[in-house]
């Protein structure tokens, strides 16, 4: 049998929701996601394309290449990783030179105050706030900013609630690309006919034009009278007044990429 290329991958937290074992891809559990503004490293989602390299920090070298003093016009900066496929080709991605020159783009070696874990890029990782990374880059032409998005983490879909409880607590997150801060998050329980504003928690050190962290929210909603089930709907608005489409009909794609329609969570009411 051929040796398992993933046998030296790091151990992971058992609470992670594994979507693919090899290469390892896992989600943070929604039930724990809003317990902390800064997601603990061990609960942070993992998105790998290849086996995880095991690099000794003291032996690692970061190489910055130039073109021997030649004067040229640069349009992009290319970043290359140490994770390689069976042909020996490393994973790589590039961003426009104007983006790379901004103060927001960094080469990071810490995550939440400690050395970056192996699953998240140890010992060094480039961070490009506001941009989505292209997977398995080929023929790169552009990197697209994420649209504004909003997700409900609690309650879970198809949660059963007692009608006598009268109210229900809702919590979740919102985020937008390009450093655009979230200015409003709203919840509806009547199909979008009426909306109520949510209480928001944001990083106070980031202003609305440079807000790369998410916004957490919570709200208490009334259980609609006379229904056996209903949907909780959440939507957000960012600093540039971008909002979310009501449905995915205009943004549908087979892989579900950049899906940012209103988030709906069905709830069952018990008498």
UniProtKB/TrEMBL annotation:
InterPro entries tied to this protein: Ig_E-set, MoCF_OxRdtse_dimer, Mopterin_OxRdtase_euk, OxRdtase_Mopterin-bd_sf
GO MF annotation terms: heme binding; molybdenum ion binding; molybdopterin cofactor binding; sulfite oxidase activity
Superkingdom per UniProt: Eukaryota
Coiled-coil ranges from the UniProt annotation: none
Cofactor: Mo-molybdopterin
Gene Ontology BP, a term: sulfur compound metabolic process
Keyword Metal-binding: yes
Signal sequence, renumbered to the chain: none
All residue ranges annotated as the Moybdenum cofactor oxidoreductase dimerisation domain in the record: 142-269
Alphabetized UniProt keyword annotations: Metal-binding, Molybdenum, Oxidoreductase
Organism: Caenorhabditis remanei (Caenorhabditis vulgaris)
Lineage: Eukaryota, Metazoa, Ecdysozoa, Nematoda, Chromadorea
GO annotation, cellular component aspect: mitochondrion
Protein's UniProt name: Moybdenum cofactor oxidoreductase dimerisation domain-containing protein
């Amino acid at each position: 049998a051929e040796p398992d290329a993933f046998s030296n991958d790091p151990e992971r937290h058992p609470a992670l929701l594994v979507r693919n074992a090899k290469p390892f891809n896992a989600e943070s559990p929604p039930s724990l996601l809003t317990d902390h503004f800064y997601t603990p490293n061990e609960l942070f989602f993992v998105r790998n394309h290849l086996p995880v390299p095991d690099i000794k920090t003291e032996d690692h070298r970061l190489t910055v290449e130039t073109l021997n003093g030649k004067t040229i016009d640069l349009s992009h900066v290319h970043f290359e990783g140490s994770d390689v496929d069976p042909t020996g080709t490393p994973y790589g991605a590039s961003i426009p030179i104007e983006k790379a020159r901004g103060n927001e783009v960094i080469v990071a070696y810490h995550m939440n105050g400690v050395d970056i874990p192996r699953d998240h890029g140890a010992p060094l990782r480039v961070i490009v706030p506001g941009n989505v990374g292209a997977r398995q880059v080929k023929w790169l032409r552009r990197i697209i900013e994420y649209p504004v998005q909003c997700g409900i983490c609690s309650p879970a879909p198809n949660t059963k609630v007692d009608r006598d409880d009268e109210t229900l607590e809702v919590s979740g997150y919102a985020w937008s690309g390009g450093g655009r801060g979230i200015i409003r998050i709203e919840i509806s329980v009547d199909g979008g006919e009426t909306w109520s504003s949510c209480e928001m928690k944001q990083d106070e050190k980031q202003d609305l034009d440079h807000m790369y962290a998410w916004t957490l929210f919570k709200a208490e909603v009334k259980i609609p009278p006379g229904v056996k089930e209903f949907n909780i709907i959440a939507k957000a608005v960012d600093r540039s007044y971008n909002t979310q489409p009501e449905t995915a009909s205009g943004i549908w794609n087979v892989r579900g990429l950049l899906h940012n329609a209103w988030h709906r969570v069905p709830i069952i009411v018990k008498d």
